[in-house]
Amino acid sequence: MNPLPQQQYNYGSQSQYPTQPQWGTQAPYPTQPEPPRVRNDSFGLSSSMSNLKDPRFMTKSEAYAAAAEVCQRAAAEDEAGRYETARRYYLLALDYFNRALTEETDPIMRQKLTEKTLLYSNRADQLGAALGITTSKVLLCFHCSNPIDNVSPYKVVENKNYHSKCYESTKGLEREASKTFFLSSDHAFMKVKIPKKNMAPGETIEMMVHVQNRSSKVIKKVVAYLLKFETQVNVVTGGRYGVERKAKTKENKFGRKEFLGVNNQFPLEHGEVTLARAEFTVPTKTPLSELYGPYCREFELVVKCVFPKPTPPLKVTFPVSIALK
Description:
alpha+beta; four-stranded antiparallel β-sheet; 13 strands; elongated
C-alpha cells in the first residue's frame, strides 16, 4: 500500500479554521485490523458546519453544538472508510469538547464529556497509527484528570501537565502587611498563608495567621470573611457617544468568622501570636465565580486584625476563585 501523505492540521489560530471543512479523498483501508467503531452520538444537538469557528471564542452551548455536528461527520467518514478525513474531524471535535469542558459546571455532564473526549481521542490515535500518521495523545491535567485543550495555556512542572487554574489551586498563597501609627515608631505586623486559590462551596481550608503587636494599641481579634464583587455591564443607547457601556459593581460581605486564638490569646496588648490552623469554611450556598460575558462575579478572601475604633484594621486580601471540585 502506498503511504498516505502526512497532512498537518494546525488548530493554533482562528484563520486556520475553515468555514467549510475540506473533504478528503477516500483512503485505502488500513493494513492493521480495523478498531471498533465509535458510536455516532449527537447529544441531541445540531449546528451548521458552515458556522464553525475557533473554540476560544465560543460559548458552552456553541461548543456543544459544534462538537455534536463534527462528531456526526467524523462517524460518517469513518463508516465510509475515509479514515484520514475522519481522523481530522475527530481531532477537531476534541477542541470543541475541551472548550465545553472548561465552561461546564455540572459534575455528571463533565464526567460524560471526559469519557467522550477520551473515546474520540483514542479513535483518532488508532486511525493515525493505521495510516502511518504520528499523532499526539490528549494531555490530561495531573490535578483534575480532565483533558487539556489545544488552545488554552497550561503549565508543565516536573513533567506533569496542569491547567493554569489547577496549578494555582495546588500552590499556597502568602500575604503580609504592616501598620505604623502617627508620631510613633510602634507598629503591628500580620502574615497570612492560605493553602490554595481555588475553593469550593462548603469546603474548609486551614490558614496560617501570624500577628505581631509592637504598639500601644490593642488587637481585639482576627476576622476572616469573603467579599463578593458582582459587575453588570449594560449597553446604553442614545447617550453622548451614541452607544455606551456602563458597568455597575455591587459588593457583599459574607461568611464572617472570628479567631481568638488558643486559650483566648486575643485581645493582644503586646507580643505575637501564631494561629497555625485557623479554619475557614466557605458557605455552602456561595455562588460560583463567573469571569466571562457582560456579568462578572469575583471573590476576595479578607483576613484582618481589628483594633478598637476609630483605628482602621490591618488586613490582607487574596483573590480567590469559587468553583466545583
